[in-house]
Amino acid sequence: MLPAGAARADQPPAHADAFPCPAGLEPQVRFWRGIFAETSIHQVVLHDALHLDKVYKVLDFRPELEDGVSPAEVDRLQRIETDLELERIRATLLRLHALGPNAEGLTAEERAIHDLFADDPAPDRFLAAADEKRLRGQRGLRERFGEGLRVSRRYLPEMERIFREEGLPVELTRLPLVESCFNLHAYSKVGAAGVWQFMPATGRRFLHVDNLVDERRDPIFSTRAAARFLAEMHGSLAAWPLAITAYNHGPEGMARAVAQLGTTDIVTIVRDYHGNAFGFASRNFYAEFLAALDVERNYREYFGNLPVEPAPRTREHRLDRAIGIQQAAHMAHADRELLASLNPSLSSLVIAGRRPIPRGVRLRLPESGAAGFETRLAEAPAVERVERTERKVIPVVAHRAVRSARVRPAVLTYRVQRGQTLSHIAKRYKVSVASLRVTNRLDKAGRLRPGQTLRIPRSVRRSAA
C-alpha cells in the first residue's frame, strides 16, 4: 500500500501538461533515468556532456567489492580509473580528428567512438568532443535513489498536502529526489542544506536559519518554503520547465536567458544559452526532474515493492520562551533522542544542552506527550532551565544582568586591526594558526584585511575570555 496522497503508477500524473517532455530533451531524460534506476554507485558512465546519448564506456567496480576490496579503496580506484579512461578517450578523439574523413585501420574501440558521431557532419566534431568540458564521468545513483524513494514515502503525504494548499502541482514534491535523494542530512560543500538544498540566503527568506535553529534541515518546514519559492518563480517565469530550472540556476539567470534568446522554450534555452554559471547541472536539471518523476512513478518496475515506514504522529507547539531540550523532553514525556529526531532543525549545541531551544521555535512533539505540554511549560520556574558549559550546569535565570555575566556567547568573534596577521591573533587566543584558518575558511596564505571578522574556535573561548 502506498501512503495516502502518493502517486501511483496506474494513475496518470495530475498535471501532465505542466511538465512537458519535448523531443529535444528525450536523450537527456533517458540518460538520467538510467543513472537513477539502473546504474550502480560503483559504476561510472563516461559520456559526452553536451550530447548525453553519446556514451563512450561504463566502468564497473562492483567486482572489486565482491573480491573484498574495501569501499574506500574502491572509491579511490574509481577516481583514478575514471581520470585515466577519460584521457584515453580524449586521445582517441584527437586521433580520429587527425585522420580526417578517411578513417582506416581503426581498432574496435576507435570504431565504436567513430560511429557515435555518425549523425554529426561537422568536420571538427571529434576535436570539439575532445574538449575537457565535453568529456565527463557520471557515477550511478541507483542505490541512493532507491533509498531516497523509501525515505520519501514517509513524508510525501504531508508534502503533497502542503503543495495542494499552495495551489501547486504535487509532482513538484519529487524535486528532492534530484536535489538530495531525500537525504535528510544532506549538506553541500557550498552550504546548501536539507532535502530541498536551500542556500543560507534563500533559506532565510522563508525559514529560521541561524547557529541554533536551521529549518532548512526540517523536511516539512522546508517543503512549505520550497512551495512558496517555486510559486514565486513560476509567477515571474510563467512556465514550470523554466521555474524548475530556476530552482537550480536562479530566477534572475533564467530571466536573462529568456530575454537574451527571446524564447521560453526550454529546449532552445538548454541548447543555446551560454550565460555565466549555466553549466551542466543547470542545463540538465529539468531533464533530471522528468526522469526522477518517471522512475518514482514506476518505482516497482525498477526497485520492486518499497517498505513504507509511517511517520510518527506529532503536534507542533510554538515556544513562548526559551527552554532546555532535556526539560522539554521531560515535559513531552519523551527522551532527548526522540525529541531531537522529531526536530532536525535544532543544532548540535541545542541537542547537547549547551544552548536552550530559542523562543518562537515550532517544536514538534510526540502526540502522546503533547497534551498538557503547554500547561507544564507555563508552570515550570525559569530557574530550572539550564545550559551546559564545559565544566558544569549553570541555572539560566530571567534576570538580564545575571545572565549576561554568567553565560558565554555562542560564538566568539574578533575584528582584525590594521597590520595584524593570523599568527598575532592565534597567539593572543592561544590557538593554532591552522585551526583559525580552517574555522574561517581562509586560504593557505591566511591573508587578512582590516575590519574582517574572525570566528575563534570554541575549544579556546574560555581561556581567551
Short overview:
This protein has 465 residues and is mainly α.
Quote the distance from N terminus to C terminus.
59 Å
Cα radius of gyration in angstroms:
27 Å
CATH topology of the largest domain: Lysozyme
Give the helix/strand class. mainly alpha
Q: Regions with pLDDT < 50 over 5+ consecutive residues?
A: 1-13, 383-411, 459-465
Task: Please give the domain count.
Answer: 4
State which percent range the strand residues make up. 5-15%
The gross shape turns out to be globular
Q: Give the proportion of residues in helices.
A: 40-55%
Helical stretch tally: 23
Count of DSSP E strands? 9
Q: What's the CATH first level of the largest domain?
A: Mainly Alpha
Residue-averaged pLDDT: 87
